[in-house]
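Repro:
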Amino acid sequence: MKHTLYHQIQERKIAGRKSFAVLIDPDKVNEATTEQLVSLAVESGIDYFFVGGSLVISNNLDECIRQIKVSCSIPVIIFPGSHSQISRYADALLYLSMISGRNPELLIGQHVVSAPSVKQSGLEIMPTGYMVIDGGAPTTVSYISNATPIPADKNDIAMCTAMAGEMLGMKLIFMDAGSGAKSPITNSMIEKVASHIEVPLITGGGITTPEKAYHNCRSGADIVVVGNAIEKDASLIKELSDAIHSSAKVKA
């Protein structure tokens, strides 16, 4: 059987190994800053690059991904903000369905439009149940999606939403407080969701310190995604990577 990237993520989860993904928004980088990020990422031993954004108006997606791929062997996964964010140069695509909202365009509408080009891209497709969680401030993703986030203190709603996504066939669950969130998803919500699903759990948004990343992992996140904090201070990559990887609950 082909050893796909998703199988790698599954195997890391089963082994109790935690993963760190650096999120790069093509609108916010140039050739020089991408080179710096890739260099720091390689030195720090990060596991994945997520590339994408809520808008991506620069038409720089292909070039950004190509530069990363030429510079290192770290897998590149597209984290799309719209159906147009597809690049054959990446390794995989998070095929997001916003299961936390009630906007039919983001549940299935844009998927219908994008299906032929996604199929032709040759990318590994990872069906992902995407859940937006209130991070204490309006974010680009909540504005663009026109969807009300799950309240930060409603752990049961988050749990039931994630369970429904898994039973509908989602291979990953992604809980996101959004870029610019004032606070990350609570540890209690992560723990509640993680204890009721079997698929890998991704968390992101509002993670500004190694301590927050560490506690996300200890609460049950399998992959932690950080973008905004690294845009402000790229040197955080090493500390974040060390914190995430040190949190592993390795099974004998």
